[in-house]
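Team,

Forwarding the record for the chain on the shared tracking sheet. I've put the sequence and predicted structure together so nobody has to dig through attachments.
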Amino acid sequence: MSEQFKAMIVEKQPENNFTRKIGSRAISELPEAPLLIKVQYSSLNFKDALSATGNPGVSRNFPHTPGIDAAGVVVEDASGTFTSGDQVVVTGWDLGMNTAGGYGEYIRIPAEWAIALPEGLTLRDSMILGTAGFTAGLSVQALVERVSPNAGEILVTGATGGVGSVAVAILAKAGYKVVAVTGKADQTEFLKSLGASEVVSRETVMEKADRPMMKERWAGAVDVVGGEMLAAVLKSTRYGGTVTCCGLVGSPDLPVNVFPFILRGVSLLGIDSVQCPAEPRLVVWNKLANEWQVDLEALVNEVALENLEDSIQAILRGGSRGRVLVKI
């Protein structure tokens, strides 16, 4: 095993400017932790793009290697949890934030951050899903526990993005009638190919959103947008419905009154995929590998680490579709 390995390196320059390049790092530069993994695949999430551009809300220590997802093979594990050659998946925790992440050929992490690759998935499959797919799975799991498929329509906002597209696909696979929301009219057929029964515009969902309450329609929803979109979804959710919230691309603020909660008994559930405990993490990953497994190839654009720049720019300007798989 060579001491040097390939990685994306983000460096802080004078006047708070940041540069990134594909360069060489040393294994000795990695954090002190028991589990050393040779990474084969990662993925691109919005948080990765923020980290790659030096966003202080994500990463504060530089030079830094982004990549909040990683799938690969165990080289060594001093904790004894895994053995050399085991295939593992890592998503969340501090990986790719202030701990060197999956955009490098090696990572060194605490053993509890990794899970064994679920039977039914390849390493490549697991990173087509990645944090986005896992977050979608947590959202669907929360809905499945509270809303039956015959209860009515399930709305998915931001449906062409990573979380949204996977959520559409697995909800449809689980037997739900899915309505997908997008601001990209040319993506209607793509969303229907994932299983959406109907595709609507943002304007349709936001119509009359200035009212204290809106007409009941949704039995449940997966929201990845936040802000005014989430407020409108809550106002138009049916009595006893459930809405999950996992994103803030629209806004971190929620301009809504209490009426959906106290007049219609609507539940708003927060979804966190970063520090999710081991037991629910394994439950959802096993479902993604089995009963919720979907045709992943319809979602993926595979790029080499060296060619990731265009995809970073696309996701920052909201032009990304589905999932970007990064081959390390």
